[in-house]
What we know:
Layout: E1 2-4, H1 5-15, E2 21-22, E3 30-31, E4 36-38, H2 42-50, H3 66-86, E5 100-108, E6 111-122, E7 126-131, E8 136-139, E9 146-151
Parallel strand pairs: 2-3, 3-9
Antiparallel strand pairs: 1-4, 5-6, 5-9, 6-7, 7-8
Amino acid sequence: MMITCNDIESKMRxxxxxxxxxxxxxxxxxxxxxxxxxxxxxxxxxxxxxxxxMEQYKWVTQIFDCDTLSKVMSAFVAQExxxxxxxxxxxxxxxxxxxxxxxxxxxFQGQETNHAINGCITSDKGIVLIDARIDxxxxxxxxxxxxxxxxx
Length: 152
């Protein structure tokens, strides 16, 4: 399902009201550069993430830690969308990036931490958070998940 950057801002601020959308004129902690995005189903996300090859990477403090892993995961999703487009596996109405993001926070799944992970706005389950390091996906919860920035 296609969603706009304004839809994304609204959905993100419903869960995390402290997020402020930034742009070329405004400093913010919510960066949504494109006008339109594609909101996949949770099953679509799970299928795509099965083949990420993230398990080949070893956690290395300061050089390949959580923030780097979240960048790699976002790049993987972007590459896969490009590949789907190039192989003509997408209909014309689907030709948008996924509403997939990198984020950093101080609490995930109720655990206090300083961590960077990914997330996606799905068409059927709302905002889900994804920790590729432990291969886990869960629905975002404003009480259990505190993020301080998100970049789409």
